[in-house]
Structure formats: C-alpha cells, structure tokens
Amino acid sequence: MIAAQLLAYYFTELKDDQVKKIDKYLYSMRFSDETLRDIMARFRRELENGLGRDTNPTATVKMLPTFVRSIPDGSEKGDFIALDLGGSNFRILRVKVSHEKKQTVQMESQIYETPEDIIHGSGTRLFDHVAECLGDFMEKQNIKDKKLPVGFTFSFPCAQSKLDEGILLTWTKRFKASGVEGMDVVKLLNKAIKKRGDYDADIMAVVNDTVGTMMTCGFDDQRCEVGIIIGTGTNACYMEEMRHIDLVEGDEGRMCINTEWGAFGDDGMLEDIRTEFDREIDRGSLNPGKQLFEKMVSGMYMGELVRLILVKMAKEGLLFEGRITPELLTKGKFETKHVSAIENKEGLSKAKEILTRLGVEPSADDCIAVQHVCAIVSFRSANLIATTLGAILTRLKDNKNVPRLRTTVGIDGSLYKMHPQYSRRLHKTVRRLVPECDVRFLLSESGSGKGAAMVTAWAARLADQTRQIAETLAEFRLTQEQLLEVKKRMRTEIENGLSKKSQDTATVKMLPTYVRSTPDGTENGDFLALDLGGTNFRVLLVKIRSGKRRTVEMHNKIYAIPIEVMQGTGEELFDHIVACISDFLDYMGMKNARLPLGFTFSFPCRQTSLDAGILVTWTKGFKATDCEGEDVVSLLREGIKRREEFDLDVVAIVNDTVGTMMTCAYEEPSCEVGLIAGTGSNACYMEEMRNIETVDGDEGRMCVNMEWGAFGDNGCLDDIRTEYDRAVDDLSLNAGKQRYEKMCSGMYLGEIVRNILIDLTKRGFLFRGQISETLKTRGIFETKFLSQIESDRLALLQVRAILQHLGLDSTCDDSIIVKEVCGAVSRRAAQLCGAGMAAVVDKIRENRGLDHLDITVGVDGTLYKLHPHFSRIMHQTVKELAPKCNVTFLLSEDGSGKGAALITAVGCRLREQEQKS
Question: What confidence tens digit (pLDDT) does each residue in 297-315 have?
C-alpha cells in the first residue's frame, strides 16, 4: 500500500515537473486575459473595417453579406434539396418540412466522395461531378421529374449581391479547382445540370456552412443569431443591422454576415502572438500568407502544429531521448483526431500507442509531455475563438443597446464535437471575456444541410410573399396615365359644380364663400375668431395692426369637444361652443366688448352671404342633430342669446381652407389657393365671377370652397378604389360619401393600412398569421403612427417598438412589410391630392388665358406638416401633371383662425366702404 502511494506521489511529482517544463517551452502559446481582451478589441476593429464601404477593400475580415435576412420563424414548409460541399465528402439531403399538429422535419441524405484529383482538377470537372451526384440522388429518390427548390451550402468565401449568387473569392481547405475563383458557382452548377439534360433544379440560395448552421439551430431556437464552425476550417456568421452594412443598399432590418474570420491577421495584425510553428505551418500550406487565424485554431492544422513542436523538442533532446524517426518527420502523420484521443480520459495510454506507431519509444515522461503539448495547442485554439466570438457578441449587444445580451450561438464542426475538452474550455473563456452576455451554445445535430433547406424555404416563401404583397400594393401604385385621368375627372366635376344646371347633382359642390378679396394690408382692429373642425375647438383674439410695420398678435385657448357633444343635439353643441367663448372672454377680460367675429366652420356649407352658411352635411365624425339644412350662424347667434352674457357681431363664416388661404395671402399676395391636408381634405381658390353661375354678377373674383372630399361619390373613381377603400367606407359614419377624402386624408389612411394588414395576416405574411385583438380594433392606426413608421430616421427596431406599443408583436420582417404598406397608402394619398391640385391650378391658368402661371398655394393640415414624404410627393405630382404652372406651397403657420380674423377684417373694411358710398 505504502509502495503504491509512493509510486503515485513520484508520478505526480514527475507529471508536475514535465508540465512546468512544457509550459516554459510553449510560454508564447499561453495568453493572459489581458492579452485575450486585446485580441478581442483588434477583431472588433476588423469587423468594423469589413462593414465599411471605404475600408472593406483593404480589410482582411471581409464581412460578406449573405442576403439571408431572417432566421426561421416556424412557418417554413415544403420539399427541398440541400447540397453540402465544403470538405472531403459531399452530402446531398432531401428535407421535407410539414405542418400538421406541429412543424416536423424529415431528412434523407447520402454522402458522395470528392476525390483529390477532382478538387485539384478543373472547375468544369468539379461541377460535373456535383451534377452527376445530384442526378444519382434524385433518381434514387424517384424525383427526377420534379423541379424542387435547391439550397447549396458552399463552404468557401463568396461575394454575393443576391441570395442565389455566389462569386468565389478564394479556395480554402485544400480545394484548388481551376477556373472557379471569380466565377458565380450557381451559374457553374446550373450549366453542369443543363449539360446533363436529364433533370432540372431550381437553385434558390447559396449559403456558407456557418449560415447553414445558424439556420439549422435557428429552427429549434429563434434566439439563435450567430453560427460558428470549428472543424477542418473555422468561420462565423451573425445577424447584423442593415444600417451598418455599407456594401448593401437599404437600412431596413437585419442581414446575416459571413465574417470569413479565418483571414483575421493576414495583414500582420496577429504577428505578436504567432509562433515559429505557426509560420512553418503557413510556409508549407497551399495558400501561404492567407487564412492565418484559421491556421492557428482549426482542426486542419492542429495535429500538424503538435507534430512540429514534437520534432523541435526531440531535436533539442527534450523528448524521446533526442530520437527522430522518418514517420515523425512526415507531414500529416500526426492528426487532429490524435490530439483529441490523447486529451481523453485514457489519454496517456493513447499517447503511448500513437507515438509508438510513429516509431519512437516513449517513456512515461514523454507521454505526459506530449499530452500537455496537445492541451496547450487546443486550449490556445479555444481561447482565440473565444476572443473573436466575444467581439461578435459585444457588437450584437451594442447594436441592440441592451445592458445584457441573451442570445444563442449555433455551433458545428468536428473539432468542437469530437475533442473531449474543447467545448468546455471555449464556453468558460467566453463567459469570462463577456460576462454581460448570457450565451446558450446549441450544437447543430444535422449539420448545415437542414439550414440550407431552411434558407431555401425562407427564400421560396419570401419570393411568393413578395410577389403577393407586390400584387396587393400594386392597386395603390397609380400610373401617370391614371393620375392624368383623375385630374381630368376632377376638372369635369369642378365645371359641374360651377354650372347652375348641374350644381344640384354635382359631387364637388363648388360653394361660393362670398369672400371677394384677399387682404390688402390695410386691415386693422381687434377680432374674435372661432375654429371648429375636429375634436378640438379654438377661440382666438386676433389684434391686427396696419401701417408700415404690420403686426398680427394672437391669443388663443383650446377646448375639447366630447364625443357625446359631437354626436348629440345641435343645441347641446352650440351651447358648448358658447360656453367656451364665455370662458375665453372671461380669461381675456373682454366680456363687455362687442367684437366682430369670424367663424371658421370646416364642414360643407352653402352660403348666401358672408355671414350666412347652411350646413350641407356633417363630416369628420360629427353627427349633431337638427343642424344639417340650417344656417350655422343663426344657430350660433341663438346660442349666444340663450346664454344672455355677452353679444358679438358675427361678420363671417368661413371654411378652414379659406382661412388658410387668407392667412398665407396676408404674407404673400400671390396666394389664391387654399389647401387642407390633415384629418380631412379640401381646397378653395379664387374663381372668376363670370364662371360662378350660382351667384349673380360677372365682375371680379370670389373664393370658391370646392368641398372636393366628395369627389367620386358618383362612382367616377370606382376604377381606382380598392377592396380596402370599400371596407373603410362601408364601416364609416357616412358610408358612400366623401370617397376622395377617404382615400387621401389623415382620418382614414390608418384605417386603410389596418385593413391591408389584417388581409396580409390572414394570408400568413404578417405577425405569424395571428390576428390580435388589437389589429381588429378600428382606429388603432392613427395617422401619427404612419408618419413615425415612414420616417427615414427611424431604425427598424424603433418601428417594431411602435408596433409593439400598439400591441402588435412584430418581427423585423413584419416591420419592413408594415413600412411598405404605409408607404404605398400615403404615397397614393399624396398623388391623388396632387392630381386634384393640378386640376385647380390649370383651371386658374386657363381662366386667365395664360401660357404660364405663377401661383402660391396656402397649405395647412397635420398630414402635410408631419408626414415625412407627403408634401414632397404631392409637390412632384402637381409639377408633373400641371407643367405650365409654377406652384409655390406656403405653409400656414397660424392655422385657419388667423384667416377667419382676416376675412372678418376684410368684411368689416368692405362693409364700411359700402356704408360710406
């Protein structure tokens, strides 16, 4: 017993002594955490260089875009073929993804050899071989008559400009087939298939094995956003934000980047940590000076590294009593599988067995030393991989702007899987280097073939989805011819509204406003203005001063109009308005002054004078009873009388468009058109009196309130209305009315978008096919959300945040589609509005017999002001449809309340002039 203990003690001492000796000898292969963090920082810089447009050409880490924009979401299905070419064997799989009770994957595969003479021969021979193997596989599967989608895992650095293209940059991993570098491997394979002529295949995607691994693992865990291969070669990919990928247009969503990290250090970045053994490996390789990081860490070179160390130590008399055998001197005799075997539980006996086969007669000391050399070389590999992975994880964390990152890394490769200690060492070092990242390492059980099938399923689904979404949104894309036709029809409706004969049946009512003049600068005095047109009601005191320094001073207060008042009785509505005026006069201390008042009333009214307006119909959600067909000025005066607190001189009732025109005309005399593009949509303009048959007199001009929102109520726009427009109209408070307004105003655009989103969700293109209660809720999509979603400054994560705020659990892909839908709907709205405006300005030009017209349009409304693209698209449309008009758009900064005061001032001025005469 004592003898056994003494022997064990002696052996431990011996082992410790040998370990220390090896540690000292291979000191340069052991790194402190400080060094590892420094290498991690260097790789982070290389990542950024590879992503930058200017720095990419000289970057060693190429950061190749893969055009894979999404990990599996569980909706994939179909029958696919996957090819996997990247090592000494070539694998073909048939992958069936089905949805019954749950998603299931069935795989059948066959392995074909790729002989040395083929991988070192011509490219034509290589791809003929691949095509021959594929033909054999399809025959065995009895599917030669089918054209199945094919995913091609091609594990070499490729530049891609689309998913089904791969330009080979350089061969790696012993491959050297001539005439392939710089060529599209998909075209070469298609050519080889076509040459055979006995089957057809639809190659939809070419992916790297790292991408295949990420997609395979992403099928099981949707948090997976990194893929790593640690086998014969090594590489990684991860999901990068599009806004950081300079090499690809667009900044929406994410795209998988194939880092090609094997070339890290090719620019000398790792010279301080490369050893003499690394340099010797490189000199003897097929590609000297390239893939230097890969040569330090991957399975292809690990056994050879150990062999070179053993040879040198033997030469120096530190091993095998200085004996060197021809086997030990033979390249490739010490393989990576031997490293794994020697580091196993029975490692010392394995070491003796392997070394004996190499012709040396190892002592116990020698076996311990060789085992420790293997441990140092494999540990260095795990540590270096941990630094590069750590850099990717910190980048993901920074991209997401989160304090802690929770993610999954999909991983594959013989070294990671077969080496007994490798995975544990890698995980431990990663957790030490990036403690703020919670990482799950998920082993890819079925290689990268299943992932290639997943990418193909995604590509097939995306192609079908893109086509169907494009077909849906095509109805909203109006051609130049269609827009010219809308302009022509608007002109016809304008003429109908102005004509006495057709005015009663006209949809565009062309209501005379009795505003005969824009401000001339002599207006002076204190005026009260009311502004009613939405859920809020404004009361304003406007002090206008004429003279050399014209000034307009305004005081105002906003009051809410509750829904029960909007939809109650007329008496309740006007009592509420008068109560608000009373409060405002108290607030201003002006209860006793009898001020002239202008009333901006943004609903269709038929006027018989400046101070009389009969309400034609309520719009914008108002439904107060006993008002339609009544003079709203009389209703206001009766409300004031009922209150018996104050008296006012109601001089003018005006529409908000007219108020807007007058506000802008005060600043710019050439302003003769008013436009509102907000909750509602309407326009007014100065028409020649001779053309207004519904008012006596031919002299001068009068402002006409078009009430163009009703354009199309006679069916003249039915050919461009979509099923979504009809659905919104059918469920509105005034079905069949204001159809043009419902296609281009802020009140309805969100509803059109919501209806499209419901349809796309039903068809499985959005929100995983789940229609949430939120999405069923009318009015959930306010126009302000459209404006936010379409903002160019908003990253997709922020769009997702908006959708999640609305209770819509969306992916980045969903966000891209939602943004596209919003863009199509708002673009059409701006174009329709522009077509209407083009009809107006061309009419004014023709009225005046001009070849060219310079004119200003005063504009107001939230859609015009807040939407990021509406105004630009509308301006462009007017320019294209009315090329003989130079139209300037002037934003009304003070709303239509100031305009009401100015109209009142003009009215008072004209009244005084009449009294004097």
Answer: 999 999 999 999 999 999 9
Alpha carbon 806 to its chain centroid, in Å, reads 17
Q: Which two tokens stand for residue 264?
A: 């890290």
Q: Which residues does residue 439 pair with via DSSP β-bridges, in sequence order? A: 407
3-class secondary structure, 692: coil
User: Do 705 and 684 form a contact (C-beta atoms < 8 A)?
Assistant: yes
Q: Is the pLDDT at 15 greater than 70, yes or no? A: no
Indicate the Cα dihedral angle 706, 709, 715, 719, nearest 10°: 120
The DSSP symbol for 387 reads H
Distance between CA 743 and CA 755 in Å, rounded? 13
For residue 435, what is the DSSP state? T
Report the candidate in 489, 474, 476 with the shortest Cα–Cα distance to residue 881: 489
| Strand ranges inside 196-258, DSSP E | 202-207, 224-230, 234-241, 254-258
Q: Which of 731, 737, 735, 719 is nearest to 758 (CA)?
A: 731
The phi and psi torsions of 830 (rounded to 5 degrees) equal -65, -40
The residue segments making up the domain with residue 424 are 2-31+267-443
Whole-number Å distance between alpha carbons of 840 and 498: 13
* Total number of domains in the chain: 1
Please choose, from the candidates 502, 491, 493, the residue with its C-alpha nearest in 3D space to the C-alpha of residue 693. 502
Q: Is the distance from CB of 656 to CB of 673 less than 8 angstroms?
A: no
The Cα 667–Cα 670 span in angstroms is 9
In a domain, 581, yes or no: no
Give the mean model confidence (pLDDT) for residues 29-46.
Answer: 95
Cα separation, 585 vs 869, in Å, equals: 40
Please tell me what DSSP assigns to residue 671.
E
* Model pLDDT for residues 845-875, shown as the tens digit of each residue: 999 999 999 999 999 998 999 899 999 999 9
Q: Is residue 63 part of a domain?
A: no
Q: What is the DSSP string of 568-613?
A: SBHHHHHHHHHHHHHHHHHHHT-TT---EEEEEE-S-EEEEETTEE
Q: For residue 328, give the CATH number of its domain.
A: 3.40.367.20
Q: Are 77 and 457 in contact (CB under 8 A)?
A: yes
Question: pTM to 2 decimals?
Answer: 0.68
End-to-end CA separation in angstroms for the chain? 136
| Helix (H/G/I), strand (E/B), else coil: 202 | strand
733 belongs to a structural domain: no
Q: How far apart are CA 672 and CA 844, in angstroms?
A: 9
Active site residues: 538, 602, 656
Are the beta carbons of 753 and 781 closer than 8 angstroms? Answer: yes
Residue 205 CB contacts under 8 Å (≥ 6 apart), including other chains: 68, 151, 152, 163, 164, 452, 455, 456, 459
Asked if residue 865 belongs to a domain, the reply is no
Give the separation between CA 90 and CA 209, rounded to whole angstroms: 12
Other C-beta atoms within 10 Å of 173: how many? Answer: 21
CA distance 410 to 208: 14
In angstroms, the CA 211 to CA 371 distance is: 34
